[in-house]
Amino acid sequence: MAHSNRAIHTVFIYTLLLASLCLADHTIRGLGHYDHHHRLARLDASNNTSSTSKSHASPSQVHTATSGDSNTSSDAVQTTTAYMSQTSGTQGVSTKSFAATIVSTASSSLPSSSVATSANAPSSTSQIPTKADITDIGTISQRRITDIIGALSAQSSAGSIPGWLSTLGANGMWPASEVNYTAGCAAQRANWPAQTHWHRITIMAAAWHGGLTNATSFVGSDALRSAISSAVGYWFSNDFTDDTCLDSGGLPSCPCGTPGLWNPNWFSNAKYVGQTCLMLNSTLLPSEVDGCSRMILRAYGTFDRYINGLGYITGANTLDMAQVGLDQGLRAMNISLITDAYARVHAEVVIHQTVSSDGIRPDGSFGQHVGILYNGNYGKDYLNADLDLETEAGDTQFAAEIASKEALATLLQGDLWMIYRNVITDVLHWDFSVLGRFISFPVADKQATGSINFNISEVQQLANQWQSDALLEVVDSLQTNTSDANSGSIVGNRMFYANDYMVQRGSGYITTVKIPLEFTFSDGTVYTYLQGNEYEDIAAAWDWNLIPGTTTDYAATPLNCNHTSWTGVQEFVGGVSDGEVGIAAMRYTNPYTGSLRLAEAWSSRKTCHDRGPAIWTNAPVYSVLDQKRHVGDVYVDGSKVHGSSNFTSANLLWHGGVGYALHSSPLGTPGLSVETGAKFGNWKTIGISAQPNITIDLFAAYLTHSSQGPVAYSVFPATASHEAFQHKQIQTQIRTVWNDAEISAIMDDDHSTAMVVFWDALGGSVTIPGQSILDAPVTITADGNSAIMYHYKTGNITVSDPSQTLTELQVALHVGLLGKKPPHWGWEFAKTFTFDLPTSGSSGSSVSQLLSNP
C-alpha cells in the first residue's frame, strides 16, 4: 500500500501489539470494548419486559411502559411528552442534552429524566412518538432486552450472585479483594478492573428482571433489587463531575488528584449502565434515572467532536456508542434519540473507501485505529453490535437499507478467510494477524484469542430476516465440520489489498501472510495452520525476535515501550490474486535501524517464498521459517535431529506436517538453524493477563543470511509424514526463474502459471523458459512496478500495482519463435495489454484480461 497515502498509518511494534504494558486499549471511556463480554448465545423472546411499578415487583407481575402494543390508544400517544435540550445542574454540570420524560396512560408515576452530560451532547427537539413509533419502540425494546440477557447467560453464572450479595458493603462497594476500585492516574489503563463493579450489577439486574439462565429464584427479588440500588448508588455518588476527565485524565485540565471514578484511558461502563437501566426501567428511582442519563448521554455526546488521544469516533466505537444511546432512547421512549442512534449505525455500516479508514473496507477487511487490520477484535465487536442492532430493528422503521446489508455481507465474507478451526478443541479462532495486540492474551482469558466470539446462529437469524444468500453461505461454511484447520474447507487465494494481507487455503491447511509497510507483525509474518493449535498460548514464551515468516536483523530493534510505532519507509507493498493463486510482495526497510533493506515475495503455489537481497550492519539477519509448538520428530535432509542444531548446507527440513525445500543460489545454500525445547513464559511481561506462567515445548527454524545474495525456499504444508514430504517435493515442479533486486519470477509448471514481481518503478522484462526444450519461452514485460500472473492453460493475465501509485499498466507478452506455443496464442507471437488499474478504496486490487484466441 502506498506510503504516500498512509503517512499517518502507524502500526504498533510487538511491544505495543503485546499491548497493555505500554499503551492501553484505545476504546471509548464511558463506552468502549470490554472483550470478556460478547454474545455467544441468544435466548428466545420470553420474560424480557420491564415492570413499570416503582416497587420491586417481579417484571412478570406488572405492565411494561415500553411494550409498544400495536393497540395503544391515541390518547396514550397524545399523553407521551418528550422534553429536549433540558438543562440540569446535577453535580455541578449544566449542559444541554437528549432527555425525555414519559407520561403515559400505562404508568403516570414514572420519574422524569433530569440529566447532566457533556456540552457536546446532541441537542435537538424530539418529536412526540406516534402510535407506529410506540409499536416499534416496544418491539425493539423486547428484542434488545432478550439480546442483553442472552449474552449474559452465555458468559456469566448466576451462581455467583449469592456471594456478591453477601460481600456487598453497606456503602454499595465490594471488598477490594474482589473489585479493584483504583481510579485516576493510578488505575490500570486497559480493561479497568473497577468496571467489574458494573458488570456485576448488570448480571444482577438481568437476574432480577427474569430470563437469566438458572436465576429464577432472583426474579423480582426485593433483596436483590435493593442491593442493585446500593451498588448503583455508590457509583453514581462517586462519578466524576469534571467532564474533561472523560478524555483528558492526567492532563492539566483533569490532574491526577481530581476526585471521582475515572480512568486515564477509555472503558466500557456506559454500556453496562445503559443495559442495567433498560432492564430495570420504571423501577428506577429518580436519582438512578438521573445517574443513568448522565453517564449514558455524556458518552453519547462525544459523537462529532475530537476526543483527546483518539480522534473522532469511528468504526466499532461508533456502533458501541450507538447501542448505548439506543438503550437510553428505548428506556425513555425518546424517538429522536433512537432515530439518531440508528442513523449513525447505518451511516457507519457501509463500505469505507478512504485509504487507511476505519470500518469495513471494500475487500472485506476491517480497520480500526487509522485502518489497522482488526477483523478479529474490533471487527468482531462491530459485527456483534450490528447483528444485535439489525435483528432488533427487523420489520421496523429502523431496518437497514441495502448499502448496510451489502457492507455487512462483505465483512462476513472477508471474515470467513481469516477464521481457522482448532481441531483439538473444536473451537473456531481468528488468525493472529487480524488480532493485533490481543495476541498478548491466552485463550483462558476469553478475549479475542479465545474464539471467534460471535454467534453463528444470530448470523443465520439475520440472513433469514434479510433473505440474504450471502449471509447463509457464511453460516453454512462456519458450521461445516472439518478434520483440519481449514474451517469450511475453503480452497483458493484471497488478497486483502486494503490491508496488505493474503490468505491461501488448501486441502488440510491455511497459510496467511501479513505485509503492511511497518514493523515486526507487519513485515512478512506467516502463520501456517494444520491442526489449529500451532500458535495457541505461546506468545508469552516464544522468541519475539523470531516472528514466523519474517526476515529480521536479530535484536537490532529495542523491545521496549519507547519504540512502539512507526510509519513505513517503502511504497511497494501488496499483492495480486485471481482467487485461486496469488503473490504477496513488499519492499522493506527497518524503520528504526534503516540498515535492513530487502524485497520479499511469496507465491501461494506450495507457498513458495523468494527473498531479495538484504543490506545490514552488524546484527545477524535471519529469515524465519516458523516458530510454533513442537510436536513429533524433526528431520533435516532425512535424518532426525534433537534439541538445537546448526547446518551449513541443508536442503530439506520437515516438522509437524510442514516441509521446507531450501533453494540454492550462486552464493550457495543459506545456513539453517533448528531449535526445540522447553521455553518459559510470563504473561504479565507482555500484557495484562493474570494467567499463570507457562512452560511450553517450542520449535523454531530460521535461515542465516551470510551474504547480500537472495534466499529462496518452498513450503509444503499438510504433508502427513517426512516420507510424504520427500515424495511431494520430488514430484513438484516449481522453478525459480529470476530473483534479484529488480525482478522476482517463478514458474509453477504443475499449474502452468508464471508469477512475476517487477520491483523497479519502470517495470522490466523477464523470459520464462519452456518446461522442456519442445516448449516455446514466453517473455513478460511491464512498464511499471507490478505483480503479474499468467496462467498458460486459461490464457488469463492478472495484474496489480502493490505501490498503489499507478492508474495504468502496459503489459506485453512475447512467445518464442521456436517451440510449442502455450494455448490461446493462435498465429500471433506478441500481444500487448493495457490495464486500467483501480483507484480510491480499491487501489492495489487485481484486474484480469484474457488472451483473445480460443
From TrEMBL:
It comes from Athelia psychrophila. Residues 739-810 form the Polysaccharide lyase family 8 C-terminal domain. This is Polysaccharide lyase family 8 protein. Residues 1-24 form the signal peptide. The keyword Plastid does not apply. Residues 519-719 form the Polysaccharide lyase family 8 central domain. Residues 312-465 form the Polysaccharide lyase 8 N-terminal alpha-helical domain. Residues 61-77, 120-129 have a biased composition (Polar residues). GO terms for molecular function: carbohydrate binding; carbon-oxygen lyase activity, acting on polysaccharides. Keywords: Lyase, Signal. Residues 46-60, 110-119 have a biased composition (Low complexity). Residues 46-77, 110-130 are annotated as: Disordered. GO terms for cellular component: extracellular region. GO terms for biological process: carbohydrate metabolic process. Belongs to the polysaccharide lyase 8 family.
